[in-house]
Amino acid sequence: MADRGSHWLAGKRVLVTRPFAQAKGLIRAIEAQAGVAIACPVLAIEPLPETAANKQKIIDLDRYDELIVISRNAAQMGLARIENYWPQLPAHLRWFAVGKSTAACLASEGISPHVPAAGFNSEALLELPELQQLSDQRILILKGEGGRELLEKHLAERGATVETLALYQRVLVSYSKSQLQTLFADGKPDALIATSVDVLKAMDALLASVLDDRFKLPLVVASERISDAASQLGYRRIITSPSAADDSIVMTLNVIG
């Protein structure tokens, strides 16, 4: 592994697979280190229509004790819906965020959520002391469609009544082979990034027809869970970033040797 003072990124081409809106900060961070970011979003975020049942959950917001926000998308879309019915938020409601970018989104609207000091996933959130004893507590989780059920399961085991509100879905982005070839016309990537298992699988399926040597490329992932999935697919140079934050991913890229 290279010395931490060196900049592996300089002149290197990195495939950024996050949805476009979420990728902007990472692209800027890579370019700030003289790297070349190849923007190739493999999933798009699409809002889900508001059903009568989901609308009622927002109307009944004051009946919950805790509100957990899974992602920045869930924060943005959830707050937009809440504002339609709650010009002033219920004062007793305790907010929780999975990850610092989600917490920052909430903070920009005057909300001070509980957020893990380290880690950005459900496991880290479940370590918070405020979520240990939950008897008679009602919790609403703002999230995307599908995803892991680990959080709901453990919160219910601790005594809470847990409900979820799916606000968006992840949709595969289609590329033709010629579009991918054009994307790589100036050179194939020197490294890949996958910040979720869904992104990893979508990226791998997309690259299968144009990058025969993709398993040999350095692949930066954002958790051990993604690393395990990548290993099962056949990737051999997997480097796990301490978190999915832009600066953490760039730091990890910069120490590739």
Please characterize this protein's 3D structure:
By secondary structure, the chain is α/β, with parallel strands linked by helices. It folds into two domains: 13-42 and 175-254, Rossmann fold (3-Layer(aba) Sandwich), CATH 3.40.50; 46-170, Rossmann fold (3-Layer(aba) Sandwich). Helix content is 36%, strand content 20%. The chain is built from ten helices and ten strands. It has helices spanning 20-32, 52-59, 72-85, 100-107, 122-126, 150-157, 177-183, 197-207, 224-233, 246-254; strands spanning 13-16, 36-39, 43-47, 66-69, 94-97, 138-144, 161-172, 191-194, 218-221, 237-240. Strands 2-1-8-9-10 form a five-stranded parallel β-sheet, sandwiched between helices. The chain has a five-stranded mixed β-sheet with strand order 3-7-6-4-5. Helix 8 (197-207) links the parallel strand 8 (191-194) and strand 9. The protein is elongated and about 55 Å long. Residues 1-5 have low confidence and may be disordered.
Secondary-structure element pattern, one letter each:
EHEEHEHEHHEHEHEHEHEH
Strand order across the biggest sheet?
2-1-8-9-10
End-to-end Cα distance, whole Å, is 4 Å
Q: What CATH first level of the largest domain would be assigned?
A: Alpha Beta
Number of β-strand runs: 10
Oligomeric state of shown chains? single chain
Number of helices: 10
Any idea how many domains? 2
Stretches where pLDDT is under 50 for at least 5 consecutive residues are: 1-5
Question: Judging by the overall fold, what is the CATH architecture of the largest domain?
Answer: 3-Layer(aba) Sandwich
- Approximate helicity band: 25-40%
Instruction: Say what the CATH topology of the largest domain is.
Output: Rossmann fold
Q: Please state the average pLDDT score.
A: 93
Shape, please?
elongated
Radius of gyration: 20 Å
Portion of residues in beta strands equals 15-25%
Largest sheet: number of strands, sense, barrel closure = 5 strands, parallel
Task: Assign the structural class, choosing from mainly alpha, mainly beta, alpha/beta, alpha+beta, or little secondary structure.
Answer: alpha/beta
